[in-house]
């Protein structure tokens, strides 16, 4: 790029040169620099929170239906720039272009939902137990929202925070992933041209340690009222602890070890299709990616055979083409996946490709379509025979690898599904409604799919997890409004005298001894 990207605080660019320089590269051609970014420090994050605080009062006072019109304008701009934004996503994070188009559409869908919520930020009129007295409730914005997002969904997930936060009357400080800075810049430009006042949306390009230090200082100074974080369970726990010290409850959307239960009467062709998409789509780098397929022992061998066949037939390679998945997003994720591959032991049976590890001329994959030497491409891996005490069973892998474990009874399958302690997404393939509802009732996941994959979200359905996958907060739909507003109650006594609740209530005496 011809210019260095810098943070935007209060509508103004932070001068470049002061911060460390970070180069974001194309993971399919790692020598191709997509963006050069001047990284901000902790003080910059604090300044961004100050700018948001200064802008928030005026933004709060813009009537909600008008804020909804700004959201509508964002949605129209996203649709007008859909192809261009998707191309940036494909180039910078290696997401196949068809998937990138779907991700951009998710922003537009989110805007389409929330533009109407500007006219529906309803409170309630509540009857009082006193005469000549009325009770009301109101939704008020929380204030300043700091959103910290990962780069595997570099534009869709930020919209889940930023669109409803703005709609509710909050000002936002957004810290995107530095390895997805070009995506963040394009996203910000679309939002800025929708008419947002200066300071209402601020963007801070920073690394993790500086972000944490800045957030800590901003919380101490009372500049942040809500933190949203999408990322790893380990970092989410640290952010949760930090916010807890300031009596705040963050919105945490963390990792997943998402199970798929395949019963003895399941449609195996459909189950394999779901496993292929959720296990290897986006190179397994989704929080909702399939972790372990828990398959009834009577169909396990056939399931593994079919999944192996489908995975070997799938095209992996250049994300600009028609591929199942492209490269891993960044070197840091490739290094992490190399560690995961070390968890495969001699008692495991490995399927899915002509090799394991990084695809290269010396470790080729049949049907690969791309320049293997240029990018961060990895073989898909199916590991049969994983056990509950395996590292591969217990931990999120964030790469193109799927474990398979057998079960005998549904009780055993549910116990295995819950064992890793995550609780984001779970799936069951069955034709038995009783099994569906028994599974739904006892699975720990915040999202359950029936005869569908573990991956997939819609803008009007709550998204979020429990346990190691989050603290119970939900994104999307009307449910996210509770993250970005606080309820305020008001009582208005127009009787002209003091009426004391529970003490001055009119008593009506029933004859409870009456019998027919």
TrEMBL record:
Keywords: NAD, Oxidoreductase. InterPro entries: Ald_DH/histidinol_DH, Ald_DH_C, Ald_DH_CS_GLU, Ald_DH_N, Aldehyde_DH_dom, ALDH7A1-like. GO terms for molecular function: aldehyde dehydrogenase (NAD+) activity. Residues 22-489 form the Aldehyde dehydrogenase domain. It is an enzyme of class 1 (oxidoreductase). The active site is at 253. Its EC number is 1.2.1.3. PROSITE patterns: ALDEHYDE_DEHYDR_GLU (PS00687). Belongs to the aldehyde dehydrogenase family. Homotetramer. This is aldehyde dehydrogenase (NAD(+)). It comes from Actinomadura spongiicola. The lineage of its organism: Bacteria, Bacillati, Actinomycetota, Actinomycetes, Streptosporangiales.
């Amino acid at each position: 790029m011809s210019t260095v990207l810098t943070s935007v605080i209060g509508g103004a660019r932070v001068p470049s040169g002061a911060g460390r320089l970070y180069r974001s590269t194309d993971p399919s051609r790692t020598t191709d620099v997509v963006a050069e970014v001047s990284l901000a420090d902790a003080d910059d994050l604090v300044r961004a929170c100050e700018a948001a605080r200064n802008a928030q009062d005026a933004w709060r006072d813009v009537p909600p239906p008008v804020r909804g019109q700004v959201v509508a304008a964002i949605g129209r701009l996203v649709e007008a720039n859909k192809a261009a934004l998707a191309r940036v996503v494909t180039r910078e994070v290696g997401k196949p272009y068809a998937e990138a188009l779907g991700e951009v559409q998710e922003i537009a869908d989110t805007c389409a939902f929330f533009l109407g919520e500007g006219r529906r930020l309803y409170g309630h009129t509540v009857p009082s137990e006193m005469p000549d007295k009325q009770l009301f409730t109101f939704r008020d914005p929380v204030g300043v929202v700091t959103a910290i997002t990962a780069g595997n969904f570099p534009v869709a997930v930020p919209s889940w925070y930023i669109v409803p936060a703005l709609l509710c009357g909050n000002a936002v400080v957004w810290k995107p992933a530095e390895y997805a800075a070009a995506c963040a810049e394009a996203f910000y430009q679309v939002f800025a041209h929708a008419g947002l006042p200066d300071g209402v949306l601020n963007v801070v390009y920073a690394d993790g340690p500086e972000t944490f230090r800045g957030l800590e200082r901003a919380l101490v100074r009372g500049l942040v009222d809500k933190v949203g974080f999408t990322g790893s369970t380990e970092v989410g726990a640290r952010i949760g602890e930090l916010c807890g010290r300031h009596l705040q409850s963050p919105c945490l959307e963390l990792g997943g070890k998402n199970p798929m239960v395949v019963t003895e009467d399941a449609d195996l062709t459909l189950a394999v299709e779901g496993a292929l998409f959720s296990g290897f789509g986006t190179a397994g780098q989704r929080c909702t990616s399939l972790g372990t397929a828990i398959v009834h022992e009577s169909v396990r061998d056939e399931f593994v055979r079919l999944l192996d066949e489908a995975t070997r037939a799938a095209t992996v390679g250049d994300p600009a083409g028609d591929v199942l998945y492209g490269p891993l997003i960044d070197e840091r994720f490739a290094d992490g996946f190399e560690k995961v591959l070390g968890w495969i032991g001699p008692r495991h049976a490995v399927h899915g490709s002509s090799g394991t590890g990084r695809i290269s001329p010396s470790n080729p994959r049949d049907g690969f379509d791309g320049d293997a030497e240029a990018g961060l491409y990895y073989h898909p891996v199916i590991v049969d025979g994983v056990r509950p005490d395996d590292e591969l069973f217990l931990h999120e892998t964030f790469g193109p690898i799927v474990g398979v474990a057998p079960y005998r009874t549904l009780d055993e399958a549910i116990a295995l599904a819950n064992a890793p302690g995550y609780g984001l997404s779970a799936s069951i393939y069955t034709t038995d409604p009783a099994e569906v509802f028994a599974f739904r009732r006892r699975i720990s996941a915040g999202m359950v799919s029936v005869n569908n994959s573990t991956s997939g979200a819609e803008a009007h359905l709550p998204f979020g997890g429990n346990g190691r996958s989050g603290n119970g907060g939900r994104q999307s739909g009307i449910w996210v409004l509770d993250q970005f507003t606080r309820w305020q109650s008001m009582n208005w006594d127009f009787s002209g005298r003091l009426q004391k609740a529970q003490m001055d209530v009119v008593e009506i005496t029933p004859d409870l001894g009456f019998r027919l």
